[in-house]
Amino acid sequence: MDLTNFEIISGQKARELFRSKDFLNLWKDLYAKCPWSTIFQSPEFIITWFDVYENQDPFLLIAKSGRQLQGLMFLTNKEGESTLYYPGFKLAEYQSWLSTEADNSEFVAEAFSLFASEYPNRGIHLNYLNVGTPIDQLATDSKVSQNLWLKSHEQPLMKCDPEALEKELKKKNKKEKINRLKRLGSLEFVQIKDSTYFESIMPTLAIQNDIRKGAMYGKFAFSDDPKRSEFLIDCFKKGILHTTVYKVDEEIIASNAGFQSESMVHLQGVNTHSPLFAKYSPGILHFLHLGIELHHQGFEYFDLTPGGAGGYKAMLSTDIMETQELFFGSKWKVKKLYSKEFVKNKVKKFLEKDTKGLEKWLQQKIEKKTQKGKTVDQSIQPGYFMDCSNCSKDLYTIKLSELPEAQKIKKASYQKNSLADLLLFDLSDKKQLFISDAMRRLENGQQLYTRTEQDRLISALWLIPQGVKTTSGQKVEEPYIEFSYLNQKEEAFCMDIVNSMIHHESIPLPILIKTPIELSVALPKNESSISVNPTV
């Protein structure tokens, strides 16, 4: 390959290339010839990303021989970082370049070498490489190998075997859950093909995603990035997002909108389930139905994506492939990454051998920090995330035996089981704790009542019925009501929502009410009606 035919094009010039029919035809031709290509290297994915995210600069590493395109790599910037990433970031599950088996060795060696000379202070991070991407040349080439870091990851796959999946669905525990769901309403597994309908359900999918991922990892992808929904909607319209939902009547209890390559659909895009239906395992049931449907549509695998094969992936996976994470940059950064990985592996081995010793060490660290006056969150308690420093954090309990007359109950609008309201909690340093607590409550069967004002959550109130479990795992013997969040401005009105809720939901009295502040239970003097907002 003649290096004079190799170039790096970025910014507006790269965007202009996206509009060139000649370049698009060359791109599509190389995409079809490349043995390791996935949907994430297609024009539909890459161009849609840059159309939606206009603030990001495209970087194209291009190699030509005459009029033929022999290699193509896509990169983009991330605000405040010198490292370049793959367009789509984590939404692009597989992040490789395009080439052919004949040209790949020369292309990648020259591409990374040229990048280093053009951008000596920048790096490249690709997470994860497409399975089958040839990297031997990179790892052995003396010009680039010292600037290269590679890490292996498992890529679990679920074979779309209808016989095996049907057998799994007929197992006693899953059959019971399906029958219980059918008793709640009309149970349907549906593929979404209408873009208008997909656009209408996107807010629901985004909320369910942010509740689960926020609780587990502190990641609120859709809340933090409003353009994410726009990107997925545009990808759906381009026909590259395979979307299915599991519904009871018209309520979505699980979903998957995954990017589709030639032989498989990837668990990447958005996949959700509602915590209100968690006891029925709707996510697992949905995936089993999805595998059967994918077989009928000619797909061989449902890609469960890298990042470990534990949890639900261990139950669903039938095959394990291996993929690589890649960083190319300064020798100092590469050494740092290898050192970090070495320490991480040592700690992992220590954990496997001596968990009790580690627990003792962590407890000593906690005690030392506590003695120094530092607070440490050890776990999520049935806590009260108070939005004021002068409120008492002690638990007050009152027993409410009767309500005011209906016409004397103050107006207190609220919403029931609104996941959207939970995401309006605005104490950022405690948001994951709050969402985790709320998700577990909903999964255990507790009922949520919320009030919001100007896109802010101002109170979260819970009805804990008899027989359900608390967040600590204890079974409730006597129903009660408690707050998990109360904004300072809501203190004077918190009994109004309690009275309204008990009256409207016909909750039997007497009932215990647990609050983080001392309440006055005097009868309200102002006459007003109850207002209940529909659940979002």
From TrEMBL:
<dbReference type="InterPro" id="IPR038740">
    <property type="entry name" value="BioF2-like_GNAT_dom"/>
</dbReference>
<protein>
    <recommendedName>
        <fullName>BioF2-like acetyltransferase domain-containing protein</fullName>
    </recommendedName>
</protein>
<dbReference type="Pfam" id="PF13480">
    <property type="entry name" value="Acetyltransf_6"/>
</dbReference>
<feature type="domain" description="BioF2-like acetyltransferase">
    <location>
        <begin position="171"/>
        <end position="313"/>
    </location>
</feature>
<dbReference type="InterPro" id="IPR016181">
    <property type="entry name" value="Acyl_CoA_acyltransferase"/>
</dbReference>
